[in-house]
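Sample 1 of the test manifest.
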Amino acid sequence: MNVLLLGGGGREHAIAWKLAQSPRLSKLTIAPGNPAMRDLGELVPDVSPLDLDAVVVLAERVAADLVVVGPEDPLAAGVTDHLLEAGFRVFGPTRAAAQLEASKSFANQLMAEAGIATSISESFDDPEAARAYAADAGHQVVIKADGLAAGKGVIVCDNLEEADAAIDRIMIEQAFGDAGTRIVVEERMFGRETSAHAFTDGVTVRHMPFSCDHKPVFDGNRGPNTGGMGVYSPPGWLDDDTAEHIRSDVTERAVAAMAAAGRSYAGVIYPGMMVTDSGPKVVEFNARFGDPETEALLPKLRTDLLEIVDAVADQRLADIEVEWDDVATVGVFMASSGYPNSYDTGKPISGLESVDPEVQVFVAGAREEGGRLVTGGGRVLCVVASGTSIEDARGLAYDNVARISFEGAHYRTDIGLTADQPLEVGAR
Ligand code: GLY
């Protein structure tokens, strides 16, 4: 089977690595990809997944039997619809279905109608009305740009001044462009976060193990949020009843509600959850694999990923059992100096050849210069190790992180450290 994969980050590196293990794969093409994926498929760096016509032309050129979409932006722009209209098979939701991630007010309305627990919220097109609502709310708030803002359009506020400043920043200063024309003002939730991924073809749902992202840049969850500084799976702190509640009353209910709304949802569905003292609640829905969650999930997927995505595209996921190795995984991101604020790129990356063969390095932000791999982004690479426990996986991951270097590299030293500590509401 000829597969075209869209995207070029650490998530897509992990997807490409897993697809390349399939005996059914004839050829993998990756647009744009990154140089670290070169051994896995043909890279087409000049085709952006957002250029929908160019994607169709590429799919024709490589005779793609299936197109797998990694990031959310092309899904929200309708790349799936465009490819389906041109006669291609696609793994990833249509534009109407991807609204579950692309519009927070749409997701909130769906959750209200389907009885899916989330925070109290209201949507606003007018900053004055939003300010008045936040002032009367009687609780701390989170201000969210309604549209896609590369994970940055969410501002958690400690007090009313911060809420007012956030409303100004998103609606008046338009810090996230059109994504902030509408905002959502939500009640701030306290608890512990976990990511609940599942494959679905719109009817059948096959759940993945739970995983946990570490968004703040510094140890102890201090500092500004990033695209994710590390990940572990599974969270030992998550009890079986809560996990089952999330699977049935959030993920499966959302898939059924989307079908009932005439927006049949096929691809990966990923509710980001907050486990609070009043039960698990949805923070947001995502319409694709998480990053860095994918980097920790796919190394323990036992079933052929190509079998799964192929079955989803044909709406026959019910025919496939999806199996996972019963191991723990920990992924540690190494980032450029200064990230998530401004940073330099072009720093040579060394030590990759000394990484243990059973450890994966998924590259997110790198390019080639003079035949060498150099840094090319804020989050540069994710070192992922497996073990019989999170502690084992952590040890192996950090042992290998220490062998890789580039000027100014920084990383958190506490990824997965609290994975097995009991749930404390109010903790992260
Ligand atoms: N891990 C956060 C995200 O993928 O959106």
